[in-house]
Amino acid sequence: MENLIKVAKGEQKADLVLKNANVVNVFNNKITLTDVAIYKGMIAGIAQNYEGIKEIDLAGKYLSPSFIDGHVHIESSMCLPKEFAKAVVPEGTVTVIADPHEISNVFGLHGISFMREACKNLPLQVYMMLPSCVPATQFETSGFDLASYDLSFLIDSPEILGIAEMMNYSGVLNCDKDVMSKLILGKSNHKKIDGHAPNLTGKDLCAYIASGVMSDHECTNVAEAEEKLGLGMHIMIREGSAAKDLQALIPILKENNANRCILVTDDRHPTDLKGHINDMVRKCVEGGVNPISAIKAASFNTACYFGLNNLGAIAPGYRANMLVLNNLKDFKPQMVFKDGKLVAKEGKLTVNIDENETPKLRGSVNVKWIEHEDFKIKAKSDTIRAIEISEGSLITKSTKSKIKIVDGYAESNIEDDILKITVFERHRATGNIGKGFVKGFGLKSGAIASTVAHDSHNMIVIGTNDADMEMAAIELVKSQGGKVVVNNGEVLAKLPLPIAGLLSDKSFEEILEQYNNLRKQVHKIGCKLEDPFMTIAFLSLSVIPELKITDKGVFDANCCKFIDIFDC
Asked: Quick one: average pLDDT of 528-535?
């Protein structure tokens, strides 16, 4: 500390001085041309004429706090943390608040431990929230159940910031004992409790907030966000691969409550990692938001909410996590600093992390022997309730639709875009299979399948015919997880995900290539969605209205009960 003070006073040379920087000040919302002195990874001072052992003249370029993703499931990228870091750090994201919810549904505490180990020694600072809903509800089968007792072993860890999104808002409102114990665990340890409350309003919303939940990332319109802001919540504005809420919520960043808004990605596939939080900042500015307000929503606001008191700003005593920007329009970092060290330059990492070892996990795709009959649905009539999807939204609709009947069995109606969907329980080989129909994918032939299916990540299969659906399911068992496209008995594309059925062991570039091929091939068989595999991933999320499907059947989230699809 003494040396830091001496550097700040100008009595001792800094390790590094960034000269002639236009510093973005998140405290007074001004930009000042000055020098920034760094010592042992900390910002010592901001003033003219500092001297350093090393000096970089920025010649008037902008110096911004690095970006913080306030809520992300790294597993959704299908990348190991080191590969995720390779993608997002050069984009300016140096800190993330991760919820290892996905891998916890497969491996429980072992999954959390895996992610903690895999996140060590990276140019990306990973803080974590403890998953609150494993499983998300009792209406699906997960690999593990995590009670408050299990979470209590980790709550004191310094990198654990609190309890992750409390999706079971009905459990909160009904004072479910297990839910209450998790809320108490967070509050008694003075940790944050994140929320997940789509469309919750009025007195129910008041009750939810009164329980200790202080944030929400499920707002899809200004009215919903304003009600929650007015009741004291912090709003996490989400721009993921499936759920894109930023454009609709930009107006709240222009109001007086902008300091309670946080930018998050939640779930992003590899195609959306090149351009991360920085892309969201750019879109905010294009939408009329003041550049400094947009930067604060991507850094300082997030740090303040989570109590990270030395992050999110360029000021004495703060960690030297900073971005060098050519302008405040495109927000593409020329240089990225973490703890005063240059970790990326002009879109590439400048540090080697390829030698980081990956912890080991057992196989996780454990299914009862798959038979052709598993895909059959006995027809009661030719009219069913199908799950209707809407691209860019996690919310689905219930739609009355006509199916075809062949030999007494319900089959896909390709002409009307009504496709068969099945969910196989894949953790405990119970033999559970949920069966139904979905509208909106547009497949003209073949089948697609994935072991990424929020939140319990059972195996989900959609297809035009049983034979291709069966082949797709078997292919994923062989590879111990992944995503696949099958047509007329041929595998057109496949992305193996052998780690928990969620993550690849390949490089980011290889994953991106395989994923792009998946999308290319699925479009060839008629799919009209931009990212169908992200849409598939949320069709089993039973906490999001309206109809969803789990390994236990088709579920009406509005009525909170399973339905008979022929009961129209």
From this structure: 88
**Amino acid at site 297:** A
> What whole-number distance in Å separates Cα of residue 507 and Cα of residue 238?
26
The 3-class secondary structure across 190-257, one letter per residue, is CCEEEECCCCCCHHHHHHHHHCCCCEECCCCCHHHHHHHHHCCCEEEEEECCCCECHHHHHHHHHCCC
Q: Which amino acid is at 283?
A: K
Stated as kind and residue range, the H or E segment containing 311 is none
CA 414 to chain CA mean position, Å: 32
Residue reference for tokens 């400094």: 292
Where are the strands (E) in 339-388, listed by range? Answer: 341-345, 348-349, 383-388
Q: Which tokens go with 316?
A: 């004495």
Average pLDDT score over residue span 9-15: 95
pLDDT in tens, 277-316: 999 999 999 999 999 999 999 999 999 999 999 999 999 9
Tell me: the pLDDT tens digits for 213-263?
999 999 999 999 999 999 999 999 999 987 889 999 999 998 788 899 999
C-beta separation of 257 from 301 below 8 A: no
Domains contained in the chain, CATH given = 66-309 (3.20.20.140), 372-562 (no CATH)
CA gyration radius, the chain: 24
